[in-house]
Design brief:
The chain is of the alpha+beta class. The protein is built from 6 helices and 3 strands, in the order αααβααββα.
């Protein structure tokens, strides 16, 4: 296997959904809010942010799918919280992938 193929295989390990979820400023603001305020529902988030409830809901869905959030139901409400373990593991995987690439002489 060539060095380029090895690098491509190594880079393929990066979770693009996770990176995409972090690439949107609104999602970062949601993440900050949940870290500071704790678990919240969509309505609580929408009260504190300029975006509509439907937009916040879409962002939460993307973040949940990417492994950034946990979700639980309390009656009619869906409560979101940061999934710290998953976020940390995915972040560490990205760092490890970059380290592997550097060892192979990229950059």
């Amino acid at each position: 296997m060539s060095q380029i193929e090895t690098l491509e295989n190594t880079l393929a390990q990066i979770d693009s959904d996770f990176v995409k979820a972090l690439a949107e400023p609104v999602r970062i603001e949601i993440l900050k809010f949940l870290v500071l305020a704790g678990p919240s529902d969509v309505n609580s988030l929408a009260e504190k942010m300029p975006q509509d409830r439907s937009v916040i809901s879409r962002h939460l869905s993307i973040m949940k799918s990417a492994g950034l959030l946990n979700m639980r139901k309390e009656g009619r409400h869906v409560i979101y919280s940061v999934d710290g373990d998953s976020a940390l593991q995915k972040s560490e995987k990205i760092v490890e992938t970059i380290k592997q690439c550097l060892k192979m002489g990229c950059c």
